[in-house]
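Input record, target 12 of the design panel.
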């Protein structure tokens, strides 16, 4: 795997918009939970492309689906429908509360559709004054102007001029704050059923139940952003299924295509009828290539042994981190569920999550952060025990170095 002439990290600085600061190494090949860079150096992947590569790299189920569909049909406009899109939509309704599906290309687009549907439904049914959207501080819902405004991190939404209005941010897991603010003017409450970018924060049972009850009381729709938590990530196909609370609208993306870009908004027949012909659309949404891959991914992930395996792997991760932490106590707690885990740093290690990430990279391990104080792990849902063990050994070496 010789380096292609001049395709190096320096070229990034020459030709790419500088909104990312990628690592120096450039991966060129992946198999399972291992990745190789241009110099043929091998890495263990505990990042999964930020909770995307749910079956690892180049899983035969995905590769075969892609190759098969590539010889048939890549794209049609939504002037027509297509078989892979219909099969995938049927599959998603079979594995969730939803009766209707809208396909897009990303999580942000799925959320954009969810927010537009919530506003349209409220306007149609209750009138234009019912337009408030409540979301939560430290929440993340995408980078389009509407979704980034609804997201609860001002650093991402400030500095681009006037924002879409009537959006309120409240603290996550604070039911009293929500109860005292929500009103009949509220059209929707949007939330992650486990905050991802905000630091891997699980909702308390009281909070999640209370949010549903308050939405019902005020005729507000409950929108779950399951872009990161969905598709088996938490050990249930969707996180809401493990919480005993059902949303009215759900967005999914990231691991839905296992690495192929696709997003979807799921909802009920009653709500879906407010998205009449012409109210919303997407050029590539529901294209046969993406849907064929996603269908293969969902069919694989929903197998009972894969779902059970997620919970087993969560335990392996927690055990491995506990062993490391006994020698080098830098983690205060391990948060999250399934294979969406966050190791929160202790008081004296505050702000050093990126140091851990960089040290791990030097040892041949790919991990993530969720903010400055949480080291995040979102590996393949089918990662081998041997890969977990090797990754943990590399993580221990990395932490040992910075600990000293």
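The sequence produced for target 12 reads:
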């Amino acid at each position: 795997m010789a380096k292609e002439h001049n395709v190096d990290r320096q070229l990034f600085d020459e030709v790419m918009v500088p909104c990312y600061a990628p690592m120096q190494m450039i991966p060129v090949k992946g198999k399972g939970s291992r990745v190789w860079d241009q110099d043929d150096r091998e890495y263990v992947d505990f990042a999964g492309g930020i909770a995307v590569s749910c079956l690892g790299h180049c899983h035969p189920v995905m590769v075969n689906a892609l190759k098969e569909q590539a010889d048939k049909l890549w794209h049609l406009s939504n002037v027509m429908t297509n078989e892979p899109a219909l099969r995938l939509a049927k599959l998603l309704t079979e594995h969730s509360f939803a009766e209707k599906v809208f396909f897009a290309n990303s999580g942000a687009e799925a959320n954009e559709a969810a927010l537009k549907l919530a506003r349209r439904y409220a306007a149609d049914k209750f009138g234009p004054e019912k337009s408030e959207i409540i979301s939560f501080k430290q929440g993340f819902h995408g980078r389009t102007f509407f979704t980034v405004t609804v997201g609860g991190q001002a650093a991402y939404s400030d500095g681009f001029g006037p924002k879409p209005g009537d959006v309120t941010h409240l603290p996550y897991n604070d039911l009293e704050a929500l109860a005292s603010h929500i009103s009949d003017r509220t059209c929707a409450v949007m939330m992650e059923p486990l905050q991802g970018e905000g630091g891997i924060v699980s909702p308390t049972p009281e909070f999640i139940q209370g949010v549903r009850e308050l939405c019902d009381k005020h005729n507000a729709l409950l929108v779950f952003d399951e872009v990161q938590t969905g598709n088996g990530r938490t050990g249930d196909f969707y996180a809401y299924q493990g919480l005993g609370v059902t949303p009215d609208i759900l967005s999914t993306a990231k691991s839905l295509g296992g690495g192929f870009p696709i997003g979807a908004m799921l909802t009920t027949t009653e709500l879906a009828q407010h998205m009449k012909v012409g109210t919303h659309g997407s050029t590539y949404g529901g294209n046969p290539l993406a849907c064929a891959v996603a269908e293969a991914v969902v069919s694989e992930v929903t197998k009972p042994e894969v779902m059970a395996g997620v919970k087993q792997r969560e335990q392996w991760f927690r055990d491995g981190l506990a062993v490391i932490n006994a020698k080098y106590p830098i983690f205060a707690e391990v948060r999250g569920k399934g294979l969406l885990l966050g190791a929160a740093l202790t008081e004296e290690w505050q702000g050093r999550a990126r140091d851990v990430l960089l040290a791990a990279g030097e040892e041949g391990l790919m991990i993530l952060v969720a903010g400055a104080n949480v080291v995040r792990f979102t590996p393949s849902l089918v990662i081998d025990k041997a890969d977990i063990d090797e990754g943990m050994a590399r993580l221990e070496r990395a932490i040992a170095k910075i600990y000293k």
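The domain at 9-58+304-403 is CATH 3.90.1150.10 (Aspartate Aminotransferase, domain 1).
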